[in-house]
Amino acid sequence: MKQTKQKTLDKLSTTVEQRRIQAIAFDMDGLMLNTEDLYEQVGHILMQRRGKLYREEVRSQMIGLPAPQAFGVLIREENMAESWQELQKETDGIFEDMLPTQLAAMQGLSELMDYLDEIKLPRCVATSSTPSFAQKALTIVGMLDRVDFVITAQDVPQGKPHPDIYLAAAKRMAVAVERMLVLEDSPTGTKAGVSAGAYVVSVPNEHTKHGSFEGCRWIANTLHDKRIYEELGVSFD
Questions:
Q1: Has residue 19 got a pLDDT over 70?
Q2: Mean pLDDT estimate for the chain
Q3: Has residue 236 been placed in a domain?
């Protein structure tokens, strides 16, 4: 990948202003970080404490949603008595033990960030996670300082699948939303990006690969996918 990257950098001649894509907004959970793997483990622990199973049909409905809506699904489907805030607090406690040893960046993220540094392309994180969790998780994997800012569901009127977060991200990066590349792993996030009018590429993981990614431009295998680099102006000819 490093040799390919150097060859393609030598062929790159366009400036940021000339490129179709002028900024990138990254989803975080399941796209940048392996947190969807951890969320699944946490969900099993959470439900086992209550003598229940963490059902796949429930988990799949929760992916990509802000905490109030995600836990709302769990409460509704499992007839739970706790509030979403109580479940959030318990979940955070379980996560605390996992993050230092199990949190990791997704395949291809570091290399993509290196390339964005080379071409000086603006970038941000747009996530449904809470600000405190996003800051902590990105810091652990060394990614917080590699993005210009983090915007969360708490910063906008409505979280994903509504378009608010991506409209706000484009505005803050001072680019037309249609010239902002959105990288998303979930159907919920994909819908948000498409609704905003962004240039959306979906990058499903093992937890989301069977979902519907209607409206995205195309589906990448991983962040290593050379088509992502082509969208940024790289020629592989």
A1: no
A2: 90
A3: no
